[in-house]
Amino acid sequence: MVTELQRRERTLLGAAEEKERAVVAGLDALDAGPQLPPRPGPWRVFVRSVLPPLVFLAGLVGVWQLAFLAEIKPSYALPSPAHVWETFSATVADGRAAEAIWTSLSRGGVGFAMSLVIGTLLGLAMWWSRWLRAAVGPIVSGLQSLPSVAWVPAAIIWFGLSNAAIYAVVLLGAVPSIANGLLSGMKQVPPLFDRVGRVLGLSTLARTRYVLLPAALPGYLGGLRQGWAFAWRSLMAAELITYSPALGQGLGQLLNLGRELTQMSLVISSITLILVVGIAIELLLFAPLERRVLNRRGLTMR
Amino acid sequence: MSTDTGTTEVVPDVFVRPAGARDTRAPAPAAVRIEGVSQLFERGRPAVLDGVDLTVEEGEFVCLVGASGCGKSTLLNLMAGLLEPTAGQVEVSAKRPALMFQEPALLPWLTAAGNVELALRARGVGKAGRRAEALRLLRLVNLEGQETKRVHELSGGMRQRVALARSLAQDSSVLLMDEPFAALDAITRDVLHQELTRVWAEQRLSVVFVTHNVREAARLGTRVVLMGSRPGRIVREWKVTFPQPRTIEDSGVSALATEITQELHKEISRHGH
After folding, report:
1. Which of B 136-195 lie inside 8 A of A, CB atoms?
2. d(CA A88, CA A9)
3. Based on the domain organization, do B123 and B233 belong to the same domain?
4. Does B80 sit within 8 Å of A16, measured CB to CB?
5. Amino acid B7: pLDDT
6. Do residue A24 and residue B153 have CB atoms under 8 angstroms apart?
7. Which residue has the higher pLDDT, A261 or B38?
8. Is B96 a member of any domain?
9. In the prediction, which pLDDT does B192 show?
C-alpha cells in the first residue's frame, strides 16, 4: 500500500538523488586513497636489488682469492676461485650438473607434492577435530623442530637404500610445516568473516570453501614455503647419506662424491648448485606467489 | 517488567502514517515481532535483556538507541538468528534477514563485485545472473565503475556502501544494521544517510538500525526506540512523522534529538548510585 506520504517522500527523494550523486562522486574522488608510487623502472630495480648482492659476492671471491694466495690452507683444501670455476663449468658442460639437478629436483618435487597432499589433509583434519588437534598438535609442532636428518638411519633400516627411504625423510621434514601453516592460517581468520558467511546463509561446506580457506591462504602459503625449505634440506641430508648406484646421482650424492675424492672444487661446486636451486625455487615460485596473494589483499607496501 | 512506552508526536504534520506499532485492525504480517524476550548469557549474572517487546511493521525504519551495554546489539543478533533467546519469541518475516556490521566486513581477497556476488551465490543465483545483479546493486549505491576494485583500494565510506550492496543482494525485506556508520567521518556519514534513506524507500525495506548516535536516529528513523541498561529493556519510543528527505540539521531532527538525549541521560543517571 502506497500512502500519500510515501508517494510524496519518493518524489522528494528523487530530486535529492541528483545532488546526492554529485556529492558522492566528489567524496569518492577525494577519498580514494593516495595513489601508489609508480613501479620503479628496470634500471632502479637493478641498482636496488640486483647490484648489491653481486657486489657482495665479488668481494667474497676477492677475499677468497687473497686467502688462497696467502696459503692459509693447502691448495687441495682451499683451491683458487679459478680452479673451482673450472670444475664448476666442467660439471655443467659434461651434463653431470644438469643430471644431478634433475634427479634431486624431481625427487624434491615428488616428495613435496606428497607432503602437500598429506600436510593439507592433516591440517584440515586437525581443524575439524578438536580431539585430533589436542592429540596430534604438540607432536606435529615438535616434529618441526626435529632435524629430519635424524630420521635417515631409521628410514634406511625400514626401506633400505631406496627412493622410499629418501621420500620418507622428505615427508617427515615437510608435512608438519605444511599442516601447521594451514592450521595457524585458519586459526588467524577473523571470527567476523565466519559471521559474515553465516549471515549470508552459506552452508558449513560453502563457508569453508569460500570464506575460511581463502582467508587462511597467506598462512598456508607461509607453511608451504617453509615446507619446501624443509623438504629440500631433508632431501640433501638423505642424498648425502644414502649412496647407491640404484639411486642415481643427485646433488647430495655429487657433494658426497667430492668428499670421497677429496676434491674440494667439486664440493664447493655442488654446494653452489644446491644453493642456486634453492634460491631459484624461492625467487621463481614462492616469492611471486606470496607477493601476488598479499598484494591482492593490500597487505604489502609493494 | 513491562515496557513503559510513551509515544510522542514530535512535529505535527499534515501527512499521517498508517498507525504503526499499535495497530488494532487485523494484524498485517510484521517484519519483526519480539515478545517477552529475555537473554541471559551466564547464570547468576544480570540479564542482558529483560522482557523486551518490539514489533517492527513492514516498511518501518526503527532506530534503537541506548547507552553502551544496553543490549541493543544482542537484540539485533537475536533478530538475525545468530543467537537464541533464553526466553520469549522472536519472529522475523524474512527467512534470513540481512545484517550489516559496524565494520564493513568485506572479504579482502575478493573485488567489490566479488563480495556482492558471494551473497548472491549463497542465494543460489547462477553465474551469469550473479555478475549482472552485482553490478546493478553497486550502481544502486553509487559505486558504478568500482566493481573490480579490491577492498583495500576503497575508502571507508565506499567499503560500507559495498557492504550495503552485499546486504541488499541477500534480497531480504528486513535489513538489520549494527552501528554501520559509527566508524565513518561526519561528512561521509551524512552522505550515507542520504543514500540509505533513498535505498530504504526504493527497495521498500523494513530496517532496524542500532546506533548510539541520537541525532542519527532522529535523522533516519520513522520510529526511535530508547533502550535502558542493566537489564536491557525498552524505556520509551517516539514516532517520527516529518517526511524524508530530512537532514541532520533540520530543526525537527534537532528538537527530537534533544528530547531523546534528555531521556537517555535520565536513564543513564539512574545507574550512578
Report:
1. 142, 146, 150-158, 166, 170, 187-188, 191, 194-195
2. 83
3. no
4. no
5. 45
6. no
7. A261
8. no
9. 82
Q: Considering only CA atoms, which of A279, A184, A170, A186 is closest in space to residue A227?
A: A170
Q: Which CATH superfamily is domain A83-296 in?
A: MetI-like (1.10.3720.10)
The verdict on B80 and B210 lying in the same domain is yes
Q: Tell me the average pLDDT across A80-93.
A: 92
Distance from CA of A294 to the nearest CA of B (A): 9
Those of residues 191-250 in B touching chain A at CB distance below 8 A are 191, 194-195, 197-198, 201-202, 243-245
Chain A residues close to B154, C-beta within 8 Å: 32
Q: Does residue B29 fall inside a structural domain?
A: no
* A14: Cβ contacts below 8 Å, ≥ 6 apart: none
pLDDT class for A36, splitting at 50, 70, 90? Answer: low
Q: Is pLDDT above 50 for B10?
A: no
What order do you get walking across the sheet with B206-211 strand by strand?
B7-9, B233-239, B223-228, B61-65, B206-211, B174-178, B98-100
How close does chain B come to A221, measured CA to CA in Å? 14
Where in the sequence is the domain holding B126, given as residue range(s)?
103-171
Q: How confident is the model at residue A35 (pLDDT cuts 50, 70, 90)?
A: low
Residue among B160, B226, B166, B224 nearest B193 (CA): B160
Which of B23, B92, B152 has the highest number of chain A CBs within 10 A, making it the mutation to test binding with A?
B152
Kindly state whether residue B97 falls inside one of the protein's structural domains: no
| Residues of B in Cβ contact (< 8 Å) with A33 | 152-153, 155
Cell of A234: 631433508
| Minimum Cα–Cα distance from B142: chain A residue | A21
In a domain, B93, yes or no: no
Residues B166 and B185 in one domain: no
Which range among A141-145, B16-20, B80-84, B136-140 shows the weakest confidence by mean pLDDT? B16-20
Burial environment of residue B43 by CB neighbours within 10 A (0 to 12, 13 to 18, 19 or more): exposed
Q: How far is the C-alpha of A23 from the C-alpha of A43, rounded, in Å?
A: 43
Cβ of residue B118 closer than 8 Å to a chain A Cβ: yes
Q: Is the ipTM of this complex over 0.90?
A: no
